[in-house]
Design a protein that fits this description.
204 residues, Rossmann fold, 8 helices
């Protein structure tokens, strides 16, 4: 199906797990593009742990530079205040039938805590990616509660099984702080950028 997938996150830093997930979703759903959307001020994460927005945007740009099906947007970075996905979806101006939102299964089960989840569900199609080894059941009571509360039917949710790598941004930040190698965890250009900019306390 032709369309655009929105992949939001702090990308603090972006790593191969993010890239592989986005690639799998685009391939499985035959989408035109995936737009990576670094959050300006993530509402659910402590600001002290977040690298500057310009640096996170730059790292995403470096990571996806060789993939014509990937794009990065600074839309949320240019908007003042917390980054709410519902506002971003509205601002993109893509018809709901052609706009897809990539979220993890744990995030999906927490969707009712987001801003205006019912309106969000009218602006896009939800692509839920179960985490490897998770017990996510799209037909379970928890998932059905979310689906019902946001005004959808179970068949409206696209459950897509993408490759999941055992990588976490917090672990990568700890490695950078300890001046340990990020090789095979992030693209070389991203590792070089982190070192050059002294991100995550890795350099004086």
């Amino acid at each position: 199906m032709a369309g655009t997938a929105l992949f939001g996150g702090s990308f603090n830093p972006i790593h191969y797990g993010h890239l592989l997930l986005a690639h799998d979703v685009r391939e499985q759903l035959s989408l035109d593009r995936v737009v990576f959307m670094p959050a300006g001020v993530p509402p659910h994460k402590p600001a002290r742990d977040i690298a500057p927005a310009a640096d996170r945007h730059a790292m995403v740009a470096l990571a996806i530079a060789d993939n014509p099906g990937f794009e990065v947007s600074d839309l949320e970075l240019r908007r003042a205040g917390p980054s709410y996905t519902v506002d971003t979806l509205q601002a993109l101006g893509v018809p709901a039938s052609e706009l897809f939102l990539i979220i993890g299964s744990e995030t999906f089960l927490d969707l009712l805590s987001w801003r205006e989840p019912r309106r969000l569900a009218t602006l896009c199609r939800l692509v839920v990616v179960p985490r490897s080894g998770s017990a996510f059941d799209p037909d379970g009571d928890a998932a059905r509660k979310v689906v019902g509360e946001i005004g959808l039917e179970p068949e409206d949710i696209l459950v897509t099984h993408a490759t999941s790598l055992p990588l976490s941004a917090s672990e990568l930040r700890a490695r950078a702080s300890a001046r340990r190698s990020l090789r095979y965890r992030v693209p070389p250009a991203v590792a070089e950028y982190i070192a050059r900019r002294g991100l995550y306390g890795g350099h004086d």
